[in-house]
Amino acid sequence: MSRSSIATIAFLAMLSCSPATMAQAQLATVPVGASATAVAFNPVTNKIYVVGGLGNSLVEVDGLTFETTTITLQSTGSQVATAHVAVNPVTNKIYVINVVSENVAVIDGATHAVSYIATAMSPYALAINLVTNCIYVADFDANMVTVINATRNTVKNIAVGTNPSAVAVDNGTNRIYVTNSLSNSVSVINGSTNAVTNVPVGDYPTALAVDAEHDKIYVANTGGNTLTQITGTTNATETITVGSYPSHVAVDSTTNKIYVAFQIPGNIVVVDGAALTTTAVPAGALQNQIVVDEWRNKIYIADPTGNQLVILDGLTNTTTEVPGTGSYLWQIAVNPLTNEIYAANLTSSDATIFSGPPAKLPLTILDLFHN
Fold it and tell me: Which of 90, 153, 243, 274 is 20 to 30 Å apart from 130, CA to CA?
């Protein structure tokens, strides 16, 4: 699908979205079954998807009415933190990792039909190229990436480094980036040829984010207390010291700022992408996930210990805390079209929907999902 077609879809999606309220507030809390572990959304259909029941089900939440539909998936046993969900808004397909059965569930957003695609051992994370309609799954124990071509219905396993733990896609360049935790490297996969180039980074890389606008990739090296900046065209690297045990990273390409969260409670670090300087900002008791809304220059942090949503203003570096209605606010997703934040609450088995000020004019679906 062309970029212009995807942009058209995004514009039509904006027209169908409900207006958001003027102040940051909680709109609803909806039950999703035991242990809500992951959340994603489709801005075209205005549907939210939450993995619940230890990964045994996918709950679809209507963004207008907040009514729920439960879609049964294969059991993942007792492994709570294994579920991962991603949405392709162009094809209206939802993908959920099942680490126990070693497959990816493919859910049709229109019919709720479910099929399964086998992966290598221990699928751990996935990302989608919206242009090529390929899904990339990091198989932690197999040292592989499973490539699912959803258009051709083909599957291929590609060898990468040891214990791949995170994957991200640059839709524009068709490059796929995979952190290899025990190889201290990032595997760069050419999406056209499946050729792999390994780039050395810091100690125990576990998370990464792509800044397509500046052709940069940022890697959180949890064991090395550093952030590695990779230039996409050359694979040249720069190392930035950020603090103890960085574990999450997100990018605002509009402001050229990078946001790093840590396993140690307390601060997040703001990195200037041009100068590579850092600023520490207090941001809740514990940061489990960090996402960026580039349209409003807002950064959202899931704080499970404080059971709250922390909102960082990208202009002033000041924070606002919004209490959650569930317990152990675990995973979040931000919908820039409606300016709603969706939070999966791990121990209260529900999802909270927060609202914000009205949205600006949309960019494209690619812009929403380029990281």
Answer: 274
pLDDT of residue 30 exceeding 70, the answer is: yes
| Residue 278 near residue 264, CB atoms below 8 Å | no
The strands making up 185-190's β-sheet, listed across from edge to edge, are: 164-170, 175-180, 185-190, 196-200
- Which CA distances in Å does 41 have to 115, 235, 290? 20, 32, 16
Lowest mean pLDDT among 114-118, 131-135, 313-317, 323-327: 323-327
CA–CA separation, 284 vs 265, rounded Å? Answer: 8
pLDDT in tens, 63-111: 888 999 999 887 655 444 456 899 999 999 999 988 777 889 999 999 9
- What domains are there in the chain, each with its CATH number? 119-199 (2.40.10.500)
Secondary structure in 3-state letters for the chain: CCHHHHHHHHHHHHHHCCCCCCCCEEEEEEECCCCCCEEEEECCCCEEEEEEHHHCEEEEEECCCCCEEEEECCCCCCCHHHCCEEEECCCCEEEEEECCCCEEEEEECCCCCEEEEECCCCEEEEEEECCCCEEEEEECCCCEEEEEECCCCEEEEEECCCCEEEEEEECCCCEEEEEECCCCEEEEEECCCCCEEEEECCCCEEEEEEECCCCEEEEEECCCCEEEEEECCCCCEEEEECCCCEEEEEEECCCCEEEEEECCCCEEEEEECCCCCEEEEECCCCCCEEEEECCCCEEEEEECCCCEEEEEECCCCCEEEEECCCCCEEEEEEECCCCEEEEEECCCCEEEEEECCCCCCCCCHHHHHCC
- Closest listed residue to residue 84, CA positions, set 43, 142, 37, 31: 37
Q: Are 170 and 132 in contact (CB under 8 A)?
A: no
Give the span between the Cα atoms of 286 and 268, in whole angstroms.
Answer: 10
Nearest to 249 by CA among 223, 230, 268: 268
**CB–CB of 218/249 below 8 Å?**
yes
Q: Find residue 256's DSSP bridge partners.
A: none
263: left (phi over 0), alpha (psi -120 to 50) or beta: alpha
State the Cα–Cα distance between residues 304 and 223, nearest whole angstrom: 22
